[in-house]
Amino acid sequence: MDWNQIRGRWAEVRGRVREQWGKLTEDDLDVIAGKRNQLVGLLQERYGATLEAVEAQVKEFEHQLKDHWQRNSA
């Protein structure tokens, strides 16, 4: 999954991000604005998780989005 695709579809993705990580606020989503590094940083801050744990979560989220988009584009 190319993060540029996620950034380009941020209006669609932000709801899924909020479902996945409920501690993020609407203001957080505005700050993130489709930037992966912002998402990772805020997840670490909100959840007190290690960088490695957050990176693994974000990678899994990317795979879920890729699968969802592939199923819906076919």
SSE run: HHHHH
Shape: globular
Q: Count of helices? A: 5
The portion of residues forming beta strands comes to under 5%
Write down how many β-strands occur, each being a DSSP E stretch of 2 or more residues: 0
Structural class: mainly alpha
Q: How far apart are the first and last residues' alpha carbons, in Å?
A: 17 Å
Overview of this protein structure:
This protein is mainly α and 74 residues long. Helix content is 80%, strand content 0%. The longest helix is centred in the C-terminal third of the chain and has 23 residues, at 51-73. The protein is globular.
Which helices and strands appear, and what pairs or packs with what?
Layout: H1 3-8, H2 10-20, H3 26-32, H4 36-47, H5 51-73
Helix pairs in contact: 3-4, 4-5
Brief write-up:
This protein is 80% helix and 0% strand. The chain has 74 residues and is mostly helical. The longest helix is centred in the C-terminal third of the chain and has 23 residues, at 51-73.
Structural descriptors:
74 residues; 0% strand; globular
